Structure formats: structure tokens, C-alpha cells
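Minutes, project check-in
Item: structure for the 414-residue chain
Input as provided by the requester:
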Amino acid sequence: MSKDVTIKRFLSEDNFQWLIVICCTLVFVGFVCSRAIASVGMFALLVLSLLYNGSGETFKKYFQRKELLVLPLFFLIVFLSGIYSEDKTSWMNWVRIKLPYLVLPIAFASIKKLEERKFIALLYGFVVTLFISVAVVLTNYFFNYIIITESFLRGNAIPMPYSHIRYTLMIAFAFFCSWFLWEKKYFLFSVNEKWLQLFLLVFLFVVLHILSVRSSLLALYVGVLFLLLRFIFVQKKFLWGAVLMMLFVALPYSAYEFIPSLKNKIEYMKYDYHTFKNGEISHLSDGVRVVSMQGGLEIAKQNFWLGVGAGDLKTEMNKFYRKYYPQLEDIDHKLPHNQLIWVLATTGIIGLALFLFAFSFPLLINGNYKNWMFVVFHLILFSSFFTEATLEEQIGTGFYLTFLLVLMNQFRHE
């Protein structure tokens, strides 16, 4: 008890909240340059919370919050699949990736709502981190412009940190963070920051089109469409809404005409589609993804209720490829490029039901669905599920879980 009191005397609530912001920013930095830094940031959040609030108070509040108690389901469905997974080494790898679902909710259980200035600083920390990393990515693109732009015609992408899909999904969310700061008139130092926020909005919007990752462009336009519909029907701005909707439709066509990387990406999509239709699959970016989903569904049909287990997915997918697509090389033996099919194949319809429940519950509780930023965050993630197993990787899990907890913690008091 005295130890906890001493720590609380050393760490005022104000200092404690600033340390939370620093730890979260450390996680964000880790997303773009070092998985180890991201892990350190997450672990620091847990240790800091336990030291400041005490383990007793932390766990007491953890068990009082339903929205936190459902999150370990993401871990449990994978962990329990180990009972019938033969490949325990592979299973342990997936369990390791899911460990944050046990740890981070405990870290946030007793953290109070961040003061407005700290929350603004946290959002800036995320947006500025992505801005700096994007500047580096674009600089590399500039110095290798012709080579990289032409490589889009072969299904390649601009070099980016780690997974280009998860990275650009974070850029899409950074765009909406900038929108949120601008709309709410949230400023860290001065009202003149509104110009910085507008610059970041435009910059990130353009950047997503230059990077030309389709999952993130889909997420971007789904989020913008939601905000436009909200503007039209909730705020009843029908005339302005009609004008903005026409602009919304025109923007993708304009981007196609004026951004070479996006144009080449779409040209490759057409080539990929027609080649796949003619029965050729090897080395096709999209074709192989479609086949991977077919494989996942085939495995799910044969193991409908419980799936094959997280540890045996790779083994069963290899069997599928050898049986139905023997012409494909090992490099094209992809795991299902669909989050929902991945869960269905590994943990069955029971696991998928629990997954969807755990994903939806935080949105529905405490009126979180009334906050547009919370809704857009979920739309970004959910839209990506149809083309990528977004959460089956450390960066994807860290991004989803960190911001889910930050936003739940911030908005549940409103």
C-alpha cells in the first residue's frame, strides 16, 4: 500500500497522463520503424498503469468493464484451437501475436479519460509519426520514380514499412484523425493549427492515391462516404451534400487521370483479371489472393464447426494448393487473404461468431456508435477484412487494439 502511495505522489495525474501519451506515441513509432519498439511501448503502458493504480484497483476495474472483457475472445479462440492443432510450433506463433488482447485491456482498465490537451497530443503523435514516415517513403519514390512507377504494371508497390496494407490503413486513419482535430477545433498551442490540420488532411488524402494500395483507398472512401451521409441526413445539409457527393464521385476518376502510380495499378488489375479468367494464375497478385480465399473456404467446409486449428492452417492450405493448383510455386502458396475466411478456416463457425461478437461489441456499448470517429475506425478495419487478414500480424493487432482502447477510454465518459 505505501509503495503505491509513494508512486502516486511521485506521479501526479497530470504527469501520469503525459506518460500515457508518450507510451502510445512510442507504439506509433514502432508501427513504422521497429516491431520491438511497439512491443516496448505496449509493455510500458501495462507496467505504468499497474504501478500507478496498483494491481488490485486495476484488475477490479478491468472486471467491471464489459467492453474490455470481450477482447480476450480474440486470443481465446486461437489459444483453444491448439487442442486440435497438430503443428504446435505454428500454433504458438499465432498465440504470441494474440497476446496483446490479454495484456493491453488490463493496462487501460483503470486509466481515466485523458484531458483534452493530452488527447490532442496523442492524436498529433500518431498523425505526425505517419507524416514523417510518409515523407521518407515519398523521398525514396522520388529518387526511383521511373523504376517504381513502371513496377506497378507488374503488380509491385512502392516500398513501405512492413505490410503495405496495414501501413496505408494507418495512413487512412491518420487522415480521419486530422479531420477530427479540424472539425472539433482541437488545438495544442494555437488556433492557427487549423491550417496545419487542413494541410495534413489534403496531404494524406493525396498520398493514399500515390501509394495506390486498394484496401486503404477502399477504407478511405468508405469512411468519407459515411461522413458525407452523416453530413446530409443528420445535419440536413442536402444542397451542400449533393455538391460534395458529386465531388466525391469525381475524385477517383481525376486521381486515375493525374496520378501515374494509381493508373498503372489499375492497368495491372485489368491485366490480372483477364489473365486469371483465362486460367493462368502463377505470379498474379490478385489471382493468387482469390485462390487463397477459395482454399480457406474449402478448408472451412471440411471443418465447419471448429476449423482446422490455427497451427494447421498452413499445412492444410499447402494440401489444397498441391491438389487443385499444382502449377503454383511455393512462393504463391498464400494463406487466406481475408480475415473472416481466415478465422472461419482456423476456428470454424463458432470461432467466427465469437470473433464478430468481440469486434462489434465495443462499437455498440456505451453509445460508441454515436461517435463518428469510432465508427470510421471500425469501418476502416472491417473494409480491409475482405482483402487481407489484417489482424493476423503484430502491426495489425497493435494498431487495432491500441486505438480501440484509446478511443473507448476517451469516449465512454461522454
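Outcome recorded: Residues 116-143 form the longest helix (28 residues).
No further action items on this chain.
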